[in-house]
Amino acid sequence: MRTVVFVAPFLMEATLKFVRAAASLPGFRIVVVTQDGPEKVPQGCHHWRVGDGTSVEGIVEAARGVAKQWGGIHRIVGILENIQEQLAAAREILGVPGTTRIVAERCRDKSLMKTVLREAGLPCAKHRLLRSHDEGMAAAKEIGFPLVIKPPDGAGCRSTYQVSSFEELNHVLTELRPSPGHEALAEEFITGDEFSFDTITIHGKVLFKNILRYLPGPLDVTRNEWIQWCVVAPRTIDTPEFAPIHAVGPKVNEVLGIHTAFTHMEWFRRPDGSPVVSEIGARPPGAQFTTLMSYAHGRNFYRAWAQAILEERIEIPIERTHAAGCAYLRGPGQGRVARVLNVDKAQERVGHLVVEAKLPQVGKPKNAHYEGDGYVIVRHPDTQVVEQALKIIVETIRTEYA
Ligand SMILES: Nc1ncnc2c1ncn2[C@@H]1O[C@H](COP(=O)(O)OP(=O)(O)O)[C@@H](O)[C@H]1O
Ligand SMILES: [Mg+2]
What we know:
18 strands, binds adenosine-5'-diphosphate, Dna Ligase, domain 1, 8-stranded antiparallel β-sheet, globular, 4-stranded parallel β-sheet, 402 residues, Rossmann fold
């Protein structure tokens, strides 16, 4: 038995899917290092309580304890974006293989990431790291409006602003107060459609590629609470429109030094068709994307993640057999979910395409995030059928809050 430390500060359902997948592989002892109690830990896994599962010290101390009880550690893994650097530091301290500190830093720090990508000649937004209000104003003069201002290490559109004038910029900078050690990132605003480019990379080779289309981009969804976000996995990604990103995507992994990882990159397609790399994480995507990939390929991608990371292998060929799409349910208003209307009408029209759904739960406090309070996943061999079904779902189902 090889011992795997799976760090999950909190055991959310999205994370548990990866824990269960790791536990389903034969020959591994999965020790879940968490701040949560043992009751949520899946059967067959061990529970290890940690005071702070987001700190290097907490992770290292827990891993040392695990090693003392069960012997050497095979891998230290985790899904959460904001612990990737800590996991890498813990691996380095304990001599455990996996994504290294420098690679984790390049994938976490959006300023460093873009500097490395631009130096390699890969297309990405012009950017400036801001350590003061004045540097923000100077960046605007150099780059021009609109600008995007965001934390260098954010996630889920947290504190991300699109600004179109000095007045708006002044307002945002006054709120963010960038300073040395608490920098903000200013980026040229990229116009275009937004997509993901996800890979399974093993020993530096991209062995699997995936593309998802965002309808619309997350920032537009965040800024307009009436928009219900949709994400589509097209039936085929081997089309001329995607040829440029197939060329650029694997180079991004290469120049960042990604060795063995499930990666999640985001990119824009400019109106002229050229790609602009937005950001990359050396971890699987959130927001049901791994589930979407599973439905599009008739393959369990949670398990594929576990095989890639724990066994450094992938079962190929992986064939794309379907288009799949997810509609994220939410609505305008504040408070708690009061009603979910017209589900029956949507069911009547597209129910035969639905493969998975979680409706907003009445009484639950509103989730302001672009993922909303529930989702519906549809699947069909034809991309247009999937897109049409998503449109019907978001035009029909209404979530009300009170
Ligand atoms: N330079 C940019 N140009 C246009 N839109 C951007 C830019 N940077 C970010 N965005 C928008 O903001 C969203 C969140 O930014 P991102 O860098 O992906 O951070 P996060 O880690 O929060 O996902 C993106 O998905 C995109 O919609
Ligand atoms: Mg993003």
